[in-house]
Amino acid sequence: MKTFYGTALPNPLMLGTAQYPSPAILEQAFRQSGAGVATVSLRREGAGGAGAAFWQMIQDLGVLILPNTAGCHTVKEAVTTAHMAREVFDTKWIKLELIGHTDSLQPDVFQLVEAAKILTEDGFEVFPYTTEDLIVAERLLAAGCEVLMPWGAPIGSGRGLNNPYALRAMRAEFPEVPLVVDAGVGLPSHAAHAMELGFDAVLLNTAVARAGDPIAMAQAMMGAVRAGKLAHDADPIEARDMAEASTPVIGKAFLT
Amino acid sequence: MTVYSVIGAGVAGLAVASELVARGATVQVFDPSGPPGAHGCSWWAGGMLAPWCEYENAEEPVLRLGQDAIRWWQTRTEVTHRGTLVVAGRRDLPDLRRFARRTEGFQEVGAQIATLEPDLPGYGQGLFFEGEAHLDPRRALMDLYNGLIDSGVTFHKTVAPASLDNAIDCRGLHARDVLTDLRGVKGEMLVIRCPDVSLTRPVRLLHPRMPLYIVPRGDGVYMLGATMIESEDSSRITARSMLELLSAAYALNPAFGEAEVLEIGVDLRPAFADNLPRIRRRAGRIYANGLYRHGYLLAPALACGVADLALNNTHSEMVDEDRT
Predict the structure, then answer these.
(1) Do the beta carbons of residue B309 and residue B281 sit within 8 Å?
(2) For strand B3-7 and strand B26-30, is the pairing parallel, antiparallel, or unpaired?
(3) Which of A101, B198, B302, B314 has its CB surrounded by the most CB atoms within 10 Å?
(4) B232: chain A residues, CB-CB within 8 Å
């Protein structure tokens, strides 16, 4: 089983912690689903420990914490936020997010590679939020990243996997690298799809937090990633154009 | 004779005092900051009595308990009963459909928007919550305060003595020294003046991260709110928040671009983990807290719950702990 910088995940579901109706519902979404990793944004909650009460609540969940640089638009902002995250959560993990486009929140991959290099040299373990571009992926690995997190679709769009072909190609190109589909998942079927493609985990937030019943949706997502992983490991059949009967036909009176 | 001592003169404390007095109790109020003012977070509230809109992202008690608020306030201050209009930008129409699915008490409106609010050009789809109302929070606080004074309630501009009997602690986030599970949720708002635009009821503009709303205060003055940030830094508004609030107003009507910014408000809402209010009794002292973003909507229910406990020893659903 692949590890994330030496840490094996208890399961392949990573959940964000923003936009829930209340911290109590957030906590139940984690407890009832069993999601093993929580991503936390530091940018909006501000510096100087102002978000301490909320962050303490996240830490009390007892899951692995993956702080992120959500909302950062420049290398400098992202590096500063990463340092703050390391202090607040006492972890080397950082989900590196560098927004390049206002409407699609598409990552700025050029700055992403630059920031990944700086942070890796500084001892961080970087989880880069990237596109499905293979060359960018290579550059990120060369910069020291040991995990890649391509988008499924724009953040919060709930569209599912916009480009399954490219994600499949990425999986084939980097068979040994832990890959996470990050962003764009709206339904459990999307999450299962990512796992069926051989991805190692799925990271999502809005689909659960903004569902009418976030606790039930978190459980549904966990069921989906587990099903998708089981299916992938079970070596699924190939799709074909014509029927293939599952019972023998010879000797049956089928020509009547 | 039993004298009830309410500690804190924000919306929670004043509502509790008002309800106790209405039920015939003798009350005094302690608040070292004095009469209602900018020091309390209820000074900066929107003052929407909008249980159906709030229910979109809140738990069931908010809808049920909030519906009694309009009647409670009507006997104590001026309540404007013109409903709420919810609209979304063209690209956010899926959010409007979701909003509609998550709540009730509305009618879908299209062309009627132009009749309801002629100064909302370009919005062709919305939800109209006819049963909702709004009030001016500062006026409501002063009306409660003056009503209590007229009823003979004494206000002490001092810290309440620790040894008080029959004390009811309504200090909001300051009560954190006792209620350790309280947290502050930062909110930022603006008061603007724009006589060019005439809106007659609260209008909400759907936004992916916060419920943005604009509440008319009369004379071309509008309250524009409010951010919700899991932070306890109440020192300043951020540029980002200011941009988002003003962009919302501008999106509703570009004439808001000419508005004057009269006030900037920043404060922390006291909240428990489920964002619902609580009544607790510890060592004889009652604590009423955690109104979160529902100060005016749920203060009446909180006040009734406190009065039920203090006067009749009956437990409303808000009581989650009773250690006399």
Answers:
(1) yes
(2) parallel
(3) B302
(4) 50-53
List the CATH number of the domain containing A80. Answer: 3.20.20.70
- Give the residue ranges of the annotated binding site of A for 1-deoxy-D-xylulose 5-phosphate: 156, 183-184, 205-206
How big is the A-B interface in CB pairs under 8 Å?
53
Judge whether A249 lies within some domain.
no
Instruction: Rounding to the nearest 10 degrees, give the CA dihedral for residues B18, B23, B24, B29.
Output: -30
Q: Tell whether B90 lies on the interface with A, counting CB pairs under 8 A.
A: no
CB contact under 8 A, A23 and B274: yes
Q: What is the pTM of this model?
A: 0.84
Contact criterion met (CB < 8 Å) for B209 and A19: yes
ipTM given for this complex: 0.78
Which of B58, B232, B240 is opposite residue A53, by nearest beta carbon? B232
**The total number of structural domains that make up chain A:** 1
Interchain CB distance below 8 Å, B232 and A50: yes
In a domain, A1, yes or no: no
Cα A98 from Cα A115, distance rounded (Å):
9
Q: How many Cβ atoms from other residues are within 10 Å of residue A202's Cβ?
A: 30
Q: Return the residue matching tokens 């069993």.
A: A34
| Closest by Cβ to A156, choosing from B183, B208, B233 | B208
pLDDT tens for chain B, 324 residues: list them: 899 999 999 999 999 999 999 999 999 999 999 999 999 999 999 999 999 999 988 889 999 999 999 999 999 999 999 999 999 988 888 889 999 999 999 999 999 999 999 999 888 899 999 999 999 999 999 999 999 999 999 999 999 998 899 999 999 999 999 999 999 999 999 999 999 999 999 999 987 666 789 999 999 999 999 888 888 888 899 998 999 999 999 989 999 999 999 999 999 999 999 999 999 999 889 999 999 999 999 999 999 999 999 999 999 999 998 887
Residue B60 touches partner A, C-beta closer than 8 Å = no
Tokens 């509305």 found at:
B106
**Please, what are the domains in chain B?**
1-82+133-180+274-323 (3.50.50.60), 84-130+183-271 (3.30.9.10)
Under DSSP, is residue B172 helix (H, G, I), strand (E, B) or coil? helix
Q: Which residues of B257-273 are buried (b: 16+ CB within 10 A; e: fewer)?
A: eebeeeeebbbbbbbbb
The Cα–Cα gap between A57 and A76 comes to 28
CB contact under 8 A, A50 and B231: yes
Asked whether the beta carbons of residue A22 and residue B229 sit closer than 8 angstroms, the reply is: no
- pLDDT for the residue B307: 97
